[in-house]
Fold this sequence. Notes:
Number of helices: 30
Strand content: under 5%
Amino acid sequence: MGIVKYEIVKLWKKKPVILLPVLLLACNIFLIYTYEKNTEEFFYIHSQVENYRAFLQGDESADADGYYRQGQEAQEEYIEAYPEFIDEMEQRADKMKDVSLFQSVESYVYRNLVKSVRDFAPFSGIIIKADNCYGVNALAEYDISILFLLIFLAVLSYYVLFLERDKNLLLLLKCSRNGHMPLAAAKLTVMVFGAAVFTVLLECSAILTYGWMYGYGDMGRAIQSVPLFRNCTYRLSVAEAFAATVLIRMLISVVFTCILFCTGMLLKNEISAAVVVAVIFGTEYFCCRVFSLSGIFGGIKSINPFYCWDMKQVLGEYYNLNLFGYPVGKNLLALLAAAFLVIALPAAGIFIFHRTCQIRTESRIEVFLQWLRQKTGRFSRRLSLVYYEFYKVMIQQKKGLVWVGLFLWWISEISNVFAIRYYGDVEVASYHVYLSNLHGRISEETYAYIKEEAAYQDELRQAILSPETEENMQHVYSAQLDMYEKGFVLVQKQLALLEEKTGDIGDKYLLDELAYIELWKDSGTDIVLWFIGASAILFFAISIAVVDEKKEMLPLIRSTVNGRRKLEKSKSYFSSICAIVVFLIMESPLFLRYYRIDHFSTAMQKLCDFTTQNFTSGVVLGVMVVCVFMLKACSFFSVCMLGKKLAGIVKNEMAAIFVGIGILGLAALMLYHFKWDFNMIFLEGLER
């Protein structure tokens, strides 16, 4: 208990460990609210709760839009159909037994059929009733809270597993009395306890928030009263289903903790451990999204933590897996897998901690680089502190590999920008062909070209209808007309709408609006690229700020002549260089996509002259594009400043990185939910 108390006191004295859970819980509630406030349920149930209560008491006039009645009728239909679903299951099974596939009593399909009938048999005659299901459905659909759990566990794991190792204190602790297995067990105990408590707080905050918004109706009614849980084979009330969900997610958090514990004990570097854990969790999430429960990899998906986190799938889906010819429920298999991991991973982690030295050692690559520097030092002497920062972070700490990865991605994107484009829609393809010839200021040549093309298409129509034209040529003319006619109509409509706009038509431009709109509407890609670039900048900024403090070199460097001022200036310069490089890598492909549309020959077109968008601003297109990219650049520099501030507050690299990426992730989620990319932010600013 003394070692456990030491670990708790150590965490209690770390401000990030105390403040982070509070921040994450607040963000969880805020995210729920911002997500729900744009839904129909929020408008009709929360904002108009008095009307909803009046409708439940029999006042039909309170349901002005028919929303409440529609939901009530759907529930009544479900309640009428549920007894038939249960009572006729055995009859359907008897009919299926007549099929040759189910006739062998030793086969899996036969056993699965028998087990399915047996599992649903206790629900024959169960009483289900209509009630408020809005809160239950909303809670069952919400599963983003797993992101907050992973952020908390990452920070918690660092302070429990790596803090003493980075300060070279771990050997001192291990050489003390009971310093091996008891110390590892104490660290595991604190991590598991912290994960379980935080999960309970996280889930209870969500349950209370949804209950405040929508309510849950009669908490004692069977969970099968909610249509989303028709296939649930557990006799649970709504309240018991909530409790079961909290317990399941507590177990998942313990599994995550055991994975982090074993990985942290195996790897002596927090960066390597973070990469390995990210690969493990990323692979699990990928498998959860790609694999189907009824497919060949259904067993893998059923024990996936990300799948088990989903309330509606764990309790609302019924599926049996083939285990040596016998059907086994997916939840039972997941429970067995979780029990195995909870036993095996901590045991492996404690054993590794007991057998290994657990101090950070220099890699062979670093040893080779040191030897190379000794041999070539006379040719590579530098006095610049900026070069010192570059070498220290990018070469010595090998963080330049991030630049290498970003540069390879940049090459791939640049090649895609100038690759040949293929369109699946003839209308869009022909539109782009016409605009490639017509883009630019509208002039007499523009009208002459359109008049000539219209006359040519009229000739094709006459040739198609003429009895003198041969049949094979009619097909040729018809194909040519189909290829260009629809796109040409779009060009004509665009020109006609421009003529209706106020102002001289000669001062307007004909531009490829579909190409611009395609870029503007791809808000998801824009936000993802911003998140990746901002995370990279945050990673570099924090590393630059804390690397010397981590090595306890700051007092020595600052003791030199003007050491503090020059050192801080060199760090700021190099952080700015990193921000500029990452900005150019992440955003230059998008800038080239704008350039490829028409080489900015229509950049002077005013936004209010767009025909397919409702713009009222007189800002020209070129200024908008420049301002949007400047806004992105400012956001990247703001992230750089955020990284420096976090490093100054937390004074720990990994903890600051985890906290910073968590903040950026929340911002990206909010932007993605509301479709607020930088184009929309700039345009909203113009409108206001």
